C-alpha cells in the first residue's frame, strides 16, 4: 500500500517534473543561442575598436608625413616635429622617419641617426605598398618593451622616398580592453597574424607574448568570423566568438565565456526548481504516509488483524467498523456481516454433524445387532454342522470388523494396517505373533477396506487349516507398498507343510478334497470377486513347496463410476455373506 501511495504521489508530481525538464531544455537552448550571439557581438565590437586604433595610428602617420620638415627629412626640424606630435598622443611613444634605405633619419627619442631598420618585415612591407603596414608582436630593440610596429610610406608624387613608423605599446592596448569591462567569467584576446597574444583580459601578464593554444590557433586564419564551443587544455568548456585575420583586419580578436559561467543562471534556476519539487515531493510523501497510515493502512491493518484473530480461534473478533463513515468502513462492516454469517453456518454445521454422528452410532449399533442375529440364525441353521457354522461365523465377524473400522472413520476411509490387524487378530495369538505386517501407512476407500478384510480372513483361515499356521513354527508375512495410485500386497507363508498346486483355487486353496474335482469353492469365488471392478483388481497365487505366495494389486482411486454406499455394502459385502449362508446351508 505504501508503494502505491508513493506511486500516486510520483504520478501527481510527474507533470511538474515534466514541465521542469521542458523548461530546462528550452531555457538552455535559448541561453545557448543567446550566449553565442553575445560572444560574437563582443568579439566584433572589440575588433572594431582595435581597427579604430589602427586607423588612428594611420591617420597620425599620414598627417605627420606631409609636414615639410618630415617630408624633406631635415634632421633637426624633423626631430622637433616628431617630439611635438609624440607629446600629444598616448598610444605611441616614439615616431621614426627612415630614408629610402631604411636608415634612421630622425625620431623623437634621440636614437642614433643611421640605425638600420631595413631588416624589419613591416618596413619592407611599407616600401612595397602604399597601405599601412602592421607588424607582428615585437620586443623593442631599444626599450625592450613589447610593441606592435606600424609603418607608412612617405611619398613625393608617386615616388617612395622613405618610411615613417611608430609602435603601439601593448600596455596601452591592454588598458583599452580593460576599460571596456567584461561580464563575469568573460575574456577578450587580441593576437597577431601568427597567433601570438598581444593583449588579454583578464591575465595579461600570464598570456602576453604566448601563442594561442592548439584548440584555437586554427581560428586565427579562419575564413570568416563565427562562434565555437570547445574544451580547452585546462579542461574548461568555453563558448567564444572570434574575428580572424583578414586584409581589412590585421589582428585576431576573440571573446567568450566559460560554459559553466554562461549557464550558471540556468543551472541555479534548475537547481531551485529541483529543490522545490523535492521539497514538494517530500511534503506530499509525508502527507501521503500520514493520511495513508491514518485513514487507509490503519483500517486495513485492523481488518487483517481481526481476520487473523478469527482464524486463530477468536470467533468473537469483529472490526466494529460502520459503513457510512468511509469506504473502508463499509468493507469492515461487510467483514463483520460475513463473520456473523460464518459463525451462524458453523453452529448449524456443528449441529448437523452431531446429528450425523448420532445416526452413525445408531447405524453401527444396528449393524452389530444384525450381524449377531445372522450368527444366531447360522447356529440354528448349521445345528448339526459345527464346522460350517464356525467358518460362517468367522466370515461374518471379519465383515463386521471392517464395518467397525469404517464407521469409526465416518465411512470415509480406513487404514490398510488397521483392516488387516482387525481381520487377522483371531488367527494370531498375542504371545506368539506369528503374522507379521509390514508396509507404509496407506488409506483405503470403503469398498476396498471391506473386500480386503474378507480376503485376509479367507487366506488366514486356509493358512490355519492347510498352510504355514498349521505348524507351530509356521509364519505369515504380509507386505504392501503403494506405487502411484495402486496398492501392491503380497501374502507369503513360511515354515509350513509342503504344498502342491491344487486343481481348485479359492478359500479352499489347499483343501481340494472338500469338493469334487473341477468344482470351485465359495472361498475361491470370494477372493476372486471381493474387489469391485472399479478398483481394477489383479490376483495371482504361487503354490511353492515352502509356502503359498499370494499377490494382490488394486487401485485406491476408482477408475469407473463410484457406487453408492448402499450399493457397496449390500452387493459387495453383505450380499456375499448372504451368499455364503446360502451356499453353506
UniProtKB/TrEMBL annotation:
A single Gene Ontology CC term: plasma membrane
Subcellular location: Cell membrane
GO molecular function: ATP binding; protein histidine kinase activity
EC number(s) on file: 2.7.13.3
Gene3D superfamilies per UniProt: 6.10.340.10, Histidine kinase-like ATPase, C-terminal domain, PAS domain
UniProt domain HAMP: residue ranges: 294-347
Signal peptide feature range: 1-18
Enzyme class label: transferase
InterPro entries hit by this protein: dCache_1, HAMP_dom, HATPase_C_sf, Sensor-like_sf, Sig_transdc_His_kinase_HWE
Compositional bias ranges of the Polar residues kind: 564-585
UniProt-annotated stretches for the region Disordered: 561-585
Stretches that traverse the bilayer: 271-291
Annotated keywords: ATP-binding, Cell membrane, Kinase, Membrane, Nucleotide-binding, Phosphoprotein, Signal, Transferase, Transmembrane, Transmembrane helix
Key word ATP-binding present: yes
UniProt xrefs under Pfam families: dCache_1 (PF02743), HAMP (PF00672), HWE_HK (PF07536)
Catalytic reaction equation(s): ATP + protein L-histidine = ADP + protein N-phospho-L-histidine
Name recorded for this polypeptide: histidine kinase
Organism the protein comes from: Agrobacterium vitis
